[in-house]
Amino acid sequence: MSRLGGRVNRGQLRCCASANTLPKQFKAVKPIGDRVFVKVDKPRPRSVGGVLLPAVEQTSSTGGTVVDVGDVSMVKSGDHVIFSKFAGTDISVGDDAHVLLKEEDVIGLLPENELIPSLTPLSDRILIKCAKAENTSSGGVLLNETLEKPNFGSVVKVGTGRKKEDSDEMVKPNVEVGQTVMYSKYSGTEFEEGDDSYIVIRESDILAALA
Q: Measured on CA atoms in the order 177, 182, 188, 190, is the torsion positive or negative?
């Protein structure tokens, strides 16, 4: 499944095995242009049946706190953000993992310890609660669990939009909270929260409104 970050489980560790290590004589990283410098969240070890999983089985996180910003407009220092899994340049500062990102790679704002439905998508992104696949047929027969998931869901939140190329005017996505929409199968970034699935996509990934 080709996704910009694939499925994300909350509280995972971003892999920084190939991170650049900041030399000890430097104490700070100041982003240039439209970049932001983010301290990646510490890992929260996951377990199965109460057994602690080894670090190699904890997949990559996409959350962290903004330390400093360049010339950006959607985020500020101190914001807790969710960002694209494979975006940016990993930098180790002491024992802490950081990432230097373009602002465009920030998916949304999500205060620490809040659930995914509280995420505020940035730019022309849209947060959708995915529809659940039917596991029984109309005749009550249990269906195969490997059935493909539906590619539609309900709009939870809508970003503020994108700037026009020739001006600073914002163009808001042409969808509304509560609408049911169909979206491209191989788009966006998926999240799991309990038994529910969510996806953040671009407005251009929406195929149709359903009624």
A: positive
For the residues of 34-90, what is the DSSP string, one character each?
SEEEEEEPPP---EETTEEPPGGGS----EEEEEEESS-SS--TT-EEEE-TT-SEE
Please write the tens of the pLDDT for every residue from 90-144: 999 988 999 999 999 999 999 988 999 999 999 999 999 999 877 655 555 555 5
Which residue type occupies 125?
R
**Contact predicate 121/159, CB 8 Å:** yes
Backbone angles phi, psi at 103, to 5 degrees: -55, -35
pTM: 0.78
∠ CA 39-198-37, nearest 5°, is 15
Q: CA triplet 96, 127, 145: central angle to 5 degrees?
A: 95
DSSP 112-167: TT--GGG-EE-TTEEEEEEPPPP-B-TTSPBPPTTPPPPSEEEEEEE---EE-TTS
